[in-house]
Design goal:
The complex is a heterodimer. Chain A is built from 5 helices and 5 strands. Chain A is of the alpha+beta class. Chain A has a single domain, classed as Butyryl-CoA Dehydrogenase, subunit A, domain 3 (Up-down Bundle). In chain A, strand 2 (34-42) and strand 3 form a beta hairpin. By secondary structure, chain B is mainly beta. Chain B folds into 2 domains: 54-253 and 268-513, 7 Propeller (Methylamine Dehydrogenase, Chain H), CATH 2.130.10; 522-655, Sandwich (Immunoglobulin-like). Chain B is built from 8 helices and 47 strands. In chain B, a hairpin with a 2-residue loop joins strand 4 (102-103) and strand 5. Classes of the chains: A alpha+beta, B mainly beta. Chain A binds chain B through residues 53, 56-57, 60-61, 64, 139-140, and chain B through 519, 553-555, 579-581, 628-629.
């Protein structure tokens, strides 16, 4: 690995650490009755309201459509995520220290796998949360209506416009991913020039 | 579309005719003080969704409350119940708020509020608290302006008619209250004819700078006069209090005539710093008394009424230098200190001039002993010695003066029904505008402080006659808003007010609006009957008393159906609103309740007492339209004959619930 590539990987590892402190994702909900909005921040190990009571208010409203309560303790991923990110950071630093191209490639494949799995898991969580409605107790039942929040972008869910977007920590991970991609590109072997025939 | 131009002509002609009519109407009865109606409308228009620039707090007079209005629009925002029960939100009806209205005479559901006073820091309104007096059964209340709620009420002993009250010193060290009626001290059974001998006036200095700790710091006994309005000294005169008084004739009947004999009554200058020094020397005596101090703690939200059994008291003459009388024509009402603290303006109801006393001249007169005599040991200064000047021919019936901080004073004239603007120092009248009709007090935001914010002036009128659509014998009271930013005062707006505002305060909205409590936190609530969640709800019986711990959340009560209540039981519904979001109150009412309803703010616990007198099934429901399924937010209570054997039980969303063996007493 060329030196700049090793440096890029090291910087990416440090950037990923931001994910421990700052929220990864943010979901905002705006409705006529909530001009100030309600919102959730998804952190590496928990889900919290943007304002102190927002999660509580969202849960309260969701009982009308039979949604499950969002309780951080009930989401097992939140327990593993810090460890997974920790392993990624440490191994990325290892990759930078070793400077072996093959190791970088292997690590990158694993990293991409973890990212994809993470996003899939988040999507699946949203899917289940939006589809698995308690029809017995749901007060508002609209045939075929589901309440899956968007993975990214905006969506109208009854009177609420739900907007989902990476938050500061999430953007740090995006930036880290770009740096890794750059490192891979920099490490790629220059095309071997054809040997002149003797 | 050929008809459109024609149509436009017709409209145009109509508009011209309307303008002509308006001009005619204006000529007949000026309605805007020379300002074009459209300009006046623009000046007071606050577009939908926009905020007013000022909060105005107007006393409700005989409704015992405070009306909160926005200025310049004149829109009413809220009624804050203070000394009167308020069915709208259960104040004075719920078990938590009843103790606020307790007095040494027992529970009193009503009073008469007159003079709101904002708390001050460095001579400027700070927007923390609002104080207001109860005129009839003497009390002072403190209203917290993060919650717009009456938080504390102190009864004032040895007072009769707490009219000259409350007036705040420049750092809210004291709130001052004087007695309107002199009464026997201590009050006892004496012939009224012995007024001069047996009756006393008094001025009370109340410490009010700490929530929950209002107390009479000292009470000064004064000659038996009638005491009236006051202002604290400020800047150079800080440490002094100036109070007007009438009936120096010491009449006790037909005051209309008998108290209007003397050409001059007094403004008292009270040196409270000198009194503090006297107190240090042990002049104060702790005199037995019995009066109530009521306070609602922020976390329990349960009012507690305590009896206080003594009051620190002294006779004015026991502390030399504490009080001087300044002769003042004639039956003065207002004693108003200008923003620099130099001038004291007296509004003599029957005077033909506005006399203005000078604080530096008063100090000099005291030093030179320019006394014309004394009254019950209190030195009376010479009128000429303290006088700075007189405003000549100002109008009839001057009452009250406020200031703009730019060298001008504005005085209300009840009899000639006008506001007169005059210049401090030259004492010349520079402008006058009519009021509709018979203005009492006037108010400029901060106009009684060191820092007036003099964009507007509000006149509070006592008579409205033909100004509004008539409403039977009793007509609305009215406030009038004037623009005083220019040389000439301009009438902008009439707006109706609740009750009879005697006086008002207004403050830049910025000092209040961003500090609002949005809901009460369940996590920190210390309410004695708090129920933190549906799992904690329950019923219990203690003899004939039934406690129901209930929760309310959009859109159900838990429990909602209750059985096992018996005729003659005292049922206490302790309802906790589980919401933790702004503007989601729930209500609670039950058929046949003889006290009222509850309006429960988010995170709050409120208790309604209910004594069923007949068997049957009683509906209960949420009274505040809380949500889409508000109408479904209901339940029943079954009332059986005593001894019928129906078990005490309730139904929650988790299924039936029977009364636990243990009593659901207050949480420790």
């Amino acid at each position: 690995m060329p030196k700049p590539a090793r440096l890029l990987v090291a910087v990416a590892a440090l950037l990923m650490c931001v994910g421990f402190v700052l929220p990864l994702w943010r979901v905002d909900l705006i409705a006529p009755q909530y001009p100030e909005g309600l919102g959730m921040l998804i952190r590496i190990n928990t889900v919290v309201g943007v304002k102190e009571q927002d999660l509580n208010s969202i849960n309260n409203l969701n009982h009308y459509i039979g949604m499950k309560h969002i309780e951080p303790d009930m989401i097992p991923e939140l327990r593993y995520m810090p460890a997974i990110l920790g392993v990624l950071v440490v191994t990325a630093l290892g990759v930078a220290a070793l400077g072996k191209r093959a190791v970088l490639y292997a690590w990158t494949v694993a990293f991409a796998g973890v990212l994809a799995a993470g996003l899939y898991d988040y999507w699946k969580w949203g899917y289940e949360y939006g589809h698995d409605l308690d029809v017995e107790t749901a007060i508002i039942k609209i045939p075929d209506m589901t309440y899956q929040p968007p993975l990214i972008g905006s969506k109208q869910l009854l009177n609420f416009t739900a907007t989902s977007w990476p938050a500061s920590g999430g953007w740090a991970l995006v930036l880290a991913t770009i740096l890794i991609a750059l490192a891979v590109w920099k490490s790629a072997r220059p095309p071997v020039a054809p040997r002149p025939l003797a | 579309m050929i008809t459109l131009p024609k149509f436009r002509h017709v409209v145009g002609a109509g508009a011209v005719a309307a303008v002509a009519l308006l001009a005619f109407a204006c000529a007949k009865r000026p309605s805007s003080g020379g300002l074009l109606s459209a300009d006046a409308a623009k000046a007071v228009y606050v577009a939908p969704g926009q905020y007013d620039e000022f909060y105005a707090f107007m006393s409700g007079g005989f409704n015992g409350q405070i009306g909160v209005y926005g200025l310049p629009s004149g829109r009413r925002l809220k009624t804050i119940p203070v000394f009167s029960q308020y069915p709208e939100n259960g104040y004075g009806y719920s078990e938590e708020t009843k103790p606020m209205l307790n007095t040494s005479y027992g529970f009193i559901p009503w009073d008469d509020t007159h003079h709101p006073a904002l708390s001050q820091t460095n001579g400027e309104d700070d927007g923390r608290w609002l104080f207001i007096n109860a005129n009839n059964t003497p009390r002072i209340a403190r209203i917290d302006l993060t919650r717009f709620e009456t938080e504390e009420i102190l009864e004032i002993p040895n007072a009769g008619g707490n009219h000259g009250s409350p007036f705040v010193t420049q750092n809210s060290e004291y709130v001052v209250a004087s007695t309107r009626f002199s009464v026997p001290v201590p009050n006892t059974d004496v012939p009224i004819a012995e007024f001069k001998k047996r009756f006393k006036g008094q001025i009370s200095f109340i410490r009010a700078d700490e929530p929950g700790k209002m107390r009479v710091a000292f009470q000064m006994l004064m000659p038996a006069f009638n005491y009236d309005l006051a202002r604290a000294g400020k800047g150079q005169s800080n440490g002094w209090m100036f109070l007007s008084m009438y009936n120096t004739e010491q009449a006790n009947s037909l005051l209309e005539v008998n108290a209007s004999q003397n050409d001059k009554d007094f403004v008292a200058a009270v040196n409270w710093k000198a009194i503090e020094a006297c107190a240090q020397k042990g002049v104060l005596k702790s005199v037995p008394a019995s009066y109530q101090h009521n306070f609602t703690d922020e976390f329990t939200r349960q009012a507690v009424s305590q009896t206080i059994t003594s009051v620190p008291q002294f006779e004015a003459k026991q502390c030399p230098g504490a009080v001087y009388f300044m002769p003042t024509p004639k039956s003065p009402h207002g004693a108003d200190v200008d923003p620099t603290g130099e001038f004291i303006v007296a509004g003599g109801k029957l005077a033909s001039v506005i006399p203005v006393h000078s604080f530096p001249r008063m100090l000099k007169a005291i030093e030179d002993k320019a006394f014309e005599g004394e009254f019950e040991g209190i030195p009376v200064l010479k009128y000429e010695a303290t006088l700075a000047g007189e405003v000549k021919n100002p109008g009839l019936g001057p009452l009250h003066t406020e200031f703009d901080g730019k060298g001008y004073a504005y005085t209300s004239f009840f009899i000639s029904s006008e506001v007169v603007k005059w210049k401090l120092g030259t004492w010349e009248v520079v402008d006058r505008v009519p009021t509709y009709y018979s203005v009492g007090h006037l108010m400029i935001p901060g106009g009684g402080t060191m820092k007036p914010n003099a964009k507007y002036l509000v006149a509070m009128d006592k008579i409205t006659k033909d100004r509004y659509l008539p409403t039977g014998p009793e007509l609305t009271q009215s406030a009038q808003l004037y623009d005083i930013s220019g040389d000439k005062m301009k009438l902008l707006l009439d707006f109706p007010t609740e009750g009879e505002p005697h006086y008002a305060q207004a403050i830049d909205a910025k000092k209040i609006k961003d500090r609002q409590v949005k809901f009460f936190k369940l996590a920190t609530s210390k309410a004695p009957f708090l129920t933190r969640g549906e799992k904690e709800t329950g019923l219990s019986r203690d003899g004939k008393k039934v406690h129901v711990r209930m929760t309310a959340v959009r859109s159900h009560f838990s429990p909602d159906n209750i059985e096992g209540v018996q005729v003659g039981d005292t049922v206490l519904f302790h309802v906790t609103n589980l919401e933790q979001d702004w503007d989601v109150p729930h209500g609670f009412a039950i058929m046949g309740a003889q006290n009222g309803e509850l309006l429960i703010m988010p995170g709050e616990t409120r208790t309604l007492m209910w004594i069923p007198r007949k068997i049957g099934v009683y509906p209960m429901y949420c009274t505040d339209f809380c949500s889409a399924l508000h109408q479904e937010m209901q339940g029943y209570v079954r009332v059986s004959t005593p001894g019928s054997g129906v078990a005490l039980s309730g139904v929650t969303s988790k299924g039936p619930q029977s009364a636990p063996k243990a009593e659901a007493g207050p949480k420790q």
